[in-house]
Amino acid sequence: MATVLRIIRDVVPVDGDAHADAERAGAGRSDPVDVVLHGERIAAIQPRGTTPVGDAAHVIDGGGRLLLPGFVDAHAHADGRIFEPDVQLALLRQGVTTVIGGQDGVSYAPGDGAYASEYFAAINGPHPSYAGGGIRSLLDSYDGTTPLNQGVLVPAGTVRDLVCGRSTDAAGTAELDAMRALVADGLAEGALGLSTGLDYVPGVFASTDELARLAEPVAAAGAVYVSHMRGGYEANSAAGIDEIEAIARHSGVAVHVSHFHAEPAIVHVLMDGLAASGIEASFDAYPYTRGCSILAMPVLPAWLTVQPTSDVLAAITDPAGRRRLLDGWFPTIVDYPSLGPDWPSMLTLAHVAAPEYAWAHGLTIGTAAARLGTSPAEFALDVLAASRLEVNVVMAVRYARDDADLAEILAHPRALGGSDGIFIGAHPHPRARGSFARYLRLLVVERGAIGWADAAALVSTRAADRFRLGDRGRVRPGAVADLVLVDPARIADRATYDRPLELAEGIDDVLVAGVPVLAGGRLTGATPGRGIRRSNARGPAVPKEA
User: Fold this and answer.
1) Whose CB has fewer CB within 10 Å in the chain, the N or C terminal residue?
2) In the chain, which segments carry CATH 3.20.20.140?
């Protein structure tokens, strides 16, 4: 039986093309339409009233809302949390129907998931069912178990840990061959590309040459190299892009820069420079100024955190080891690229696994330490030890971007929507529950920086093309019916740094594969989502225009 979306507003971005004719896709059709779905696909788009609806399984009245293709979160950490109803609701209320995980070089597969569940416990959390079997098994775990789709990248750090263990040495020839084989296997099993996290361990120890070699099978598969760049962003962005360019030139791989936050001019110049040199490139950026990560990354040295958790805990609790860190290491973190001498006031506790520190959620390291009458460095070590390193923090930055800067960055034709959402914590970063609604409110409704057609491209079409997600990202006959109804008068992000758990508003009806998964703002209980395997079709990537 068919499902009919009865659209009574005259705006339907039919193909989601950012450069479509404004009257056709941005200003809309001249006549209301019915969008007819059969099974998981759009069967027809035709004048309203010409579609018999008596036998339809569902008739959904658009009620003056806009119909957009389901949103694709190009960078998120829902890998193990997408099975939870509160996370599903948080994503669907933003219009997100597909999430791309395996980010920053660390996730469950390949391998048994132990490394990710330990080192990234405060970011991805544990997976409820995956215990090994590789990318294929991980993707299978999402089939029919969630209302959303989940794609994954092969995480280079996890691959390195499997082959090289906790070594900080350069990979040898045999190790490189073994890592390349794991990457190729993951891609053959449906992974969307390869991710790196070059400020995390063990990725920080991977050389440019190693990464370039790992990118060779990625290029051969027509997939994407996705990078959390090395050494911070901002003033160091050029060095990070230079490394990405070297990897692309060696391998021929298409590249994507994760959470690219810098001065708008820097972002534009560097991205346009890659394109001008013949490198296929894109980036994502969340519409907030602060970041979020595990506390261990900025406050502990990489040579220590690469060790097993038991060894790290021994080092930070042993009096002599702790003194060495306090005297020799902590004075150096003022030079961490995004922080500085005021680092205790810039790190807000978002998730602390130790229940005895639950009172500290939402407080800065400095404020929490002062309440206990201890130094910020001592407090940071204490809370990490008590939590077995499972702590994440919202990170204020030296170079905060205002809304005008964010709008300029996100208006770039190679920008993709990516929340970098982390769903673990009592006081998380608001980007997990607000990013996509904020894109629409800030960029379209309030600032007019882009129109609705460009918005559809930003939050859906470009990512669907870039990561080869099949027939998604467009509202047209034959496309998979991942669809979102947006009320432009109500669309708003409600999550803030003070109240980060508030859900977005203005999106109450969402379909995945033609099945209503959000109706009236509530979960329907349907689970048509699947693990998204990379499509072999080589469709268009991001626009070529600067």
Assistant:
1) N
2) 71-289+401-523
